[in-house]
Amino acid sequence: MSDYISHDHEHDGIDRRGFLKCMAWAGTGVLWTVSGGVLASKTLAQIAKAGLSLPKATDLSFLQISDSHIGFNKEANKDVTETFKIALDRINAMPTPPSFLIHTGDITQLSKPEEFDTFDEVLKSCRTRDVFYVPGEHDVLNDGGKLYRERYLKKVEAKGSGWYSFNKNGVHFIGLVNVLDLQAGGLGQLGEEQLEWLEQDVKGLGADTPIVVFAHIPLWAVYPQWGWGTSDSERALGYLKRFGSVTVLNGHIHQVLQKIEGNVTFHTAMSTAFPQPSPGTAPSPGPMKVPAEKLRSLLGLTNVEYKQGKTALAIIDSNLS
Amino acid sequence: MTTLISKIRIAALLCSISSLFLLAIAGEMKGADSNVSSGNRIEIKDFAFNPQTITVKSGEKITWINRDEEPHTIVSVEKQFKKSSALDTDQEFTITAGAPGTYTYFCSVHPKMTGTIVVEK
Questions:
Q1: ipTM
Q2: Residue A147 belongs to domain spanning
Q3: Can you spell out the DSSP letters for B24-63?
Q4: Which residue of A has its CA nearest to B70?
Q5: Which fold would CATH assign to domain B22-120?
Q6: Where are the domains of chain B?
Q7: Residue A100 lies in a domain
Q8: How many structural domains comprise chain A?
Q9: From chain A, which residues contact B within 8 Å (Cβ)?
Q10: For the domain that residue A204 is a member of, what is the CATH number?
Q11: Which of A101, A202, A206, A287 is most exposed, with the fewest beta carbons within 10 Å of its own?
Q12: Under an 8 A CB cutoff, do A110 and B77 touch?
């Protein structure tokens, strides 16, 4: 039992107080560890402060970065390129480098070619070269994601508007797109074509295959009033119900929240650019201004590790302070 | 005869265009300091259109200005007018109201944001 669940009225493994503690505990970078199918996370700062090295016996570790918003230059963070660089420095300083990175969207602020250029240029400093992407709504603003797809899907066999899957060390990864063709009054959406593809994609897999799903907007109803959810995610999760270990990684809300429901762990990552308010605590979900000395404690990464023979992945969030 | 058919064709084409584009697009994005001739202004702030419902006369201009630090768009739900590009902070978008009627629109980046235009004669 986690030590941050004090009220669990819905028997879903989480409560509001637990969320808040979880958020306080998390920082800017999250290290995800798939260990026997169970994702676990620790902040990179926690690892650094404790003088610990990352587990050596893991079969696979990868790192989630999210919401870099290159091009944003407002009060909440006037130099998002710099904080993105700091995040990459943290990755480069890890004793055991992650096998690959996952970027869960909002690479840029306004989908401008020069913003994508800056991101690509800065990313060259990262010693982990393999990166898998899903788009955020900021990456597909004026062209339906054409430029994004041209740049970031070269290494994968993407379908439709850019969804795909791949296997690493026996773990099945699924990158979904839920930021296109959004409907008035609605939430994020996957759409019929993508859902049909997903059903077929996982059909032949054994129930003991660890599954990692990643998409920009949360695939659970974090706070629908602010659009923080995906209208047809229930159907997607229905196709994954029979699997013993499902880990869902999202961005979009610029803060760490976690929920465990049966065999499914939902987790959202911090941004490398600016924080956003906790659900319902502000008039809108826009960029949250915090004192300069506090900013980096609210930006971060997520590390994930998998160890064969175990069921859950280890998920480790860490901030940039 | 050929001339008459051509004229009918042109008239039919104009008719279909006018019914398709009930609201004609008059404006492109502008900076906040530019002059806007119309008083029909919709401010985008805190992820909301304010006023959420605006009533205008046919032929008048309607201008949106984005006061948020997030980009927003203006998109007709029924595709009755051309959508805006993403508006950055302090950018504007202007259209000219066409035929009388009620038109709903939303922000395609944050679809919870919706608004209504009522065009009167």
A1: 0.79
A2: 19-319
A3: B-----B-TTS----S-EEEEETTEEESSEEEEETT-EEE
A4: A286
A5: Immunoglobulin-like (2.60.40)
A6: 22-120
A7: yes
A8: 1
A9: 72, 74-76, 109-111, 137-138, 141-142, 182-187, 225-227, 283-287
A10: 3.60.21.10
A11: A206
A12: no
